[in-house]
Design the sequence.
């Protein structure tokens, strides 16, 4: 078989050797009469499948980065080991996608050069291993983090139009090696099968925009106002979470609400703390090693005031932004202590921002007393009650009676037979569709969704009309003056038609050129 024009013997040899893991020149290959067998074709399809499988996982890995801090916290609770596992995820995924991509490119170039696809057994084993690793990752996602499937569906509202164009481009380029293979193979059945599959895939891609919906496909004058920002435990990328420094950094980011978590000490002082144990965000293991595993509520306020609530932030670096802190910020972070709810209310009052909180743990036997002392701290602080957003469901009616000015925020959707109309709801961003957000907005119900860290997700929710979002990345979302993209429907229709027509012409040219 003669080399096709433009494919020199040296190039063919350089492609053949890494694919087959044998140093064999193109001339030796022709002299031995090596050809691509049905088994070789099967392994090529296996390679193509593994590449697509790994590519889908790469997409998922990028999407779940929005929520990966929750995974890091989960691992710490289980193993008492802090590590930014997102780096492990991205490195492993990059290795897998790079390997399968390199093999696929080699195979396609070999096909264009008319060389046999003799995949070495080492590559075969590694491909099977890659498929198993990715399958295990998806299974783990389903078992431990099933809500991320809904995150992926939401992400398609941000990426759908561009994934469509990328898929059309990739399949269009695939026309060149496909045409080369069709013209070289002698099997009529295989030719017809491949052409039918390819044509079906292209028709599906050409018509895919009929099923693509996004709230950001709208006219500029239809764009809702930018959602307000709620600081998740303050500004945890810039300061230790649930500290007065974190509250102040959140104020600097123009947040309208400081979201936090409240617990009550053994002697009845409400204080800010998210975890039931103090090990993650304080030095309790050094100060009270024998009591480190106790619930946070087992410590009295005097004990809590002895704990360092900031040095862990500098040592563990829960977010990459910690590395860029100034010397002054580092010094301030190292001096942070656990604040009482009263101190946080005073700071919120002085900064003129609202404060929203959960009261933990909900299953505590003395929970009603927790509610009482928390209400007492609110009333004694002098903060305007409309600046307090109450999240706990326990003893809500009592709260309404004793502090009627406090805004009630519900962690559920409205019911059909609602006794009192809901004015504020606070839900995970996966729990509300764009249509529901629009309907709540029309009914004057304030919707806050959490936790939103990535600009793509913020853009989708902005276009949907959400009232506010809870975020770890207030310093990032603050700078967004516009959604990442906004397309009028007429513009998107034109892009769709142009991309599809151009792709069709390139495919015709590919088959005509290689005939």
Sequence:
């Amino acid at each position: 078989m003669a080399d096709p024009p433009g494919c020199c013997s040296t190039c063919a040899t350089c492609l053949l050797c890494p694919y087959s893991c044998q140093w064999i020149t193109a001339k030796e290959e022709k002299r031995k009469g090596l050809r691509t067998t049905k088994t070789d074709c099967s392994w090529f399809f296996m390679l193509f499948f593994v590449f697509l499988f790994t590519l889908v996982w790469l997409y998922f890995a990028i999407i779940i980065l929005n929520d990966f801090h929750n995974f890091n916290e989960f691992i710490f609770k289980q193993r008492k080991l802090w590590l930014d596992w997102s780096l492990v995820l991205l490195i492993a995924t990059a290795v897998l996608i790079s390997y399968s991509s390199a093999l696929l490119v080699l195979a396609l170039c070999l096909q264009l050069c008319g060389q046999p696809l003799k995949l070495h057994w080492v590559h075969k084993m590694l491909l099977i291993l890659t498929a198993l690793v990715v399958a295990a990752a998806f299974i783990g996602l389903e078992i431990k983090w099933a809500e991320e499937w809904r995150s992926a569906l939401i992400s398609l509202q941000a990426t759908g139009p561009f994934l469509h164009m990328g898929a059309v481009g990739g399949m269009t380029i695939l026309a060149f090696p496909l045409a080369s293979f069709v013209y070289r193979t002698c099997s009529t059945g295989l030719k017809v099968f491949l052409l039918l599959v390819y044509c079906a895939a292209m028709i599906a891609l050409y018509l895919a925009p009929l099923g693509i919906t996004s709230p950001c496909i709208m006219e500029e004058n239809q764009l809702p106002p930018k959602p307000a920002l709620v600081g998740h435990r303050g500004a945890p990328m810039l300061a230790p979470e649930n500290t007065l420094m974190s509250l102040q950094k959140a104020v600097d980011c123009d947040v309208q609400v400081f979201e936090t978590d409240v617990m009550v000490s053994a002697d009845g002082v409400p204080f800010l703390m998210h975890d039931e144990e103090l090990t993650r965000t304080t030095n309790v293991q050094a100060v009270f090693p024998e009591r480190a595993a106790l619930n946070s509520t087992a410590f009295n306020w005097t004990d809590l005031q002895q704990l360092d609530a900031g040095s862990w932030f500098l040592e563990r670096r829960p977010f990459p932004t910690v590395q860029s802190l100034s010397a002054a910020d580092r010094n301030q972070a190292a001096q942070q202590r656990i604040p009482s709810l009263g101190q946080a209310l005073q700071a919120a009052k002085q900064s003129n921002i609202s404060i929203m909180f959960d009261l933990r743990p909900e299953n505590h036997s003395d929970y009603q007393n927790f509610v009482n002392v928390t209400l007492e701290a609110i009333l004694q602080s002098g903060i305007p009650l409309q600046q307090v957003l109450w999240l706990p469901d326990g003893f809500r009616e009592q709260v309404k009676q004793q502090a009627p000015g406090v805004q009630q925020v519900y962690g559920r959707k409205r019911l059909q037979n609602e006794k009192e109309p809901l004015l504020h709801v606070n839900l995970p961003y996966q729990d509300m569709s764009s249509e529901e957000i629009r309907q709540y907005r029309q009914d004057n119900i304030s919707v806050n969704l959490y936790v939103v860290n990535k600009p793509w997700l913020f853009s989708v929710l902005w276009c949907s009309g959400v009232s506010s979002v809870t975020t770890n990345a207030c310093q990032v979302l603050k700078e967004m003056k516009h959604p990442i993209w906004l397309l009028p429907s007429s513009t998107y229709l034109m892009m769709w038609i142009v991309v599809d027509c151009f792709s069709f012409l390139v495919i015709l040219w590919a088959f005509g050129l290689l005939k």
Confidence is low (pLDDT under 50) at residues 1-6. The two ends are 16 Å apart (CA to CA). The chain has two domains: 9-214+492-514, 228-478.
